[in-house]
Amino acid sequence: MNKTYTPELSPEVLGRLRVYAELFHDDLRHEAQRSWSGVYLRGLLQDGERKSIEPMVGRVPLPAELLAIRDSEQALQQFVNQSPWDEQRLLHRFRTVMAPTFASPEGIFVIDDTGFPKQGKHSVGVQHQYCGQLGKQANCQVAVTLHYVSPEGHFPAALRLFLPKSWTGSPQQLEEVGVPEPYRAARTKGQIALDLLDQVRGEGLLPGRLVVADCGYGTAGPFREGLAQRGLSYIVGVSPETVVFTDEPVWEAPGPPVRPTGTGGRSRQRPRLAAGQPRPVSVKSLAEALPRRKVTWREGTKGKLSAKFAWVRVWPGQGWAQGACAGADPIWLLIEERSDGQIQYALSNLPPRTSRIKAVRQWKSRWPVEQGYQQMKEELGLNHFEGRSWRGFHHHTCLVMLAYGFLALEQHREKKEAPALPGSKSGTAPRITLPAIRRALQRLLRPTAKPDCTYCNPHAHVFDCTLKVLTG
Q1: What three-state secondary structure class fits 189?
Q2: 335 forms bridges with which residues in the sheet?
Q3: pLDDT at 445
Q4: Which residues, in sequence order, are CB contacts of 159 under 8 Å at separation 6+?
Q5: In this structure, which CATH number among 1.20.140.10, 3.90.350.10, 3.10.310.10, 3.40.50.2000 belongs to the domain 212-248+276-369?
Q6: Could you tell me which residues are beta bridge partners of residue 238?
Q7: What distance in Å separates the CA atoms of residue 7 and residue 407, rounded to the nearest whole number?
Q8: Distance between CA atoms of 269 and 424, rounded to whole angstroms?
Q9: In the chain, fewer beta carbons within 10 Å around the N or the C end?
Q10: Mean per-residue pLDDT for 13-40?
């Protein structure tokens, strides 16, 4: 079993970090914005429990061109919360930067949401709602996320804040926190997810034909239909109460009433289930009768990862009483029974000949995404933003995604270049994690020079001081 490996990173990593940050300069209007973006990126990557503005200003050395600013904390606040740079342009550039390394025809789009617990009620989009981070209803913000997973690795591709009805129904609140006009209309999380998919896929940078999501999205029939209409395959979680037919149902087409014309009957406008046909059953009750087989999908750090799965063909049953599912094609039902007895359910429109093991491996592609957002929160300060505005929230999350992207590129580089560790199997690369990359990077980023160091010049980049000290 490979152990976590902390690579010996040379000072060249700071040069790569500088080059990486400069890739986004064309999408920032002014030199000050470019400098502050470097300060913010370094603050997110550098050691420190809080990644909010005040503590970051206290530990990140400023470049020479910013030293004359009297109130650096206020200036960084302005850069994040009020400065009119377009985070969507930066994220498009970000996907352009990441695509050459990670894009693959086998790419998978993973849709999820992530919660941000809050104390007050004035931050944009906050209300009492389900918070995944806490696993319960709580006062929080929720953002819909789109993650790209391929054989080469994974990275967050897009994110947008969800606005509950209590916000979309209050124009005054929307105005106070600066929600742009195109985002003020009420949108479900599923609709936002489809918007993000259209945006990212429309760029043509990230190929892939499969979408994976949990039951917060998959239970909604319109969401699954939206994916199918886009020609996408899916494996999406559903609630235990979701109903399906175990055999192909027979439907009666719309037609005249049974009673003769003139006696008050009306023509049927919708199909209905034929007489004698069994009604659909919940996937939970169906699971009780289906045998499940143990499937191992990959090797983990503590051994093989496995669970018991059933993989059967069913017919959609949602809206059957109104004939909404009449004529629907058969789909797959995936049932997962974990070692702790927990059971999850998913529906899929993968081709009829898809094997169980292939479906399980694709279903489990969600796992690195869950880890990724946990790392962004715990290590890069994703949930440390303390502002209230729409612009500030999306500026902060954009820069966190950029910081994560740099670590993902470094991890990919190390995997390609690192030799096998002593005692490991020949040709087996060491297991390298993003936390290991980040820890090694932090050692190099710790300030080794005072803010007024002689290495700085009026045009020095934010990382030049440390780079020159380390390289002599």
Answers
A1: helix
A2: 310, 345
A3: 60
A4: 143, 144, 145, 146, 196, 394, 397, 401
A5: 3.90.350.10
A6: 345
A7: 13
A8: 68
A9: C
A10: 89
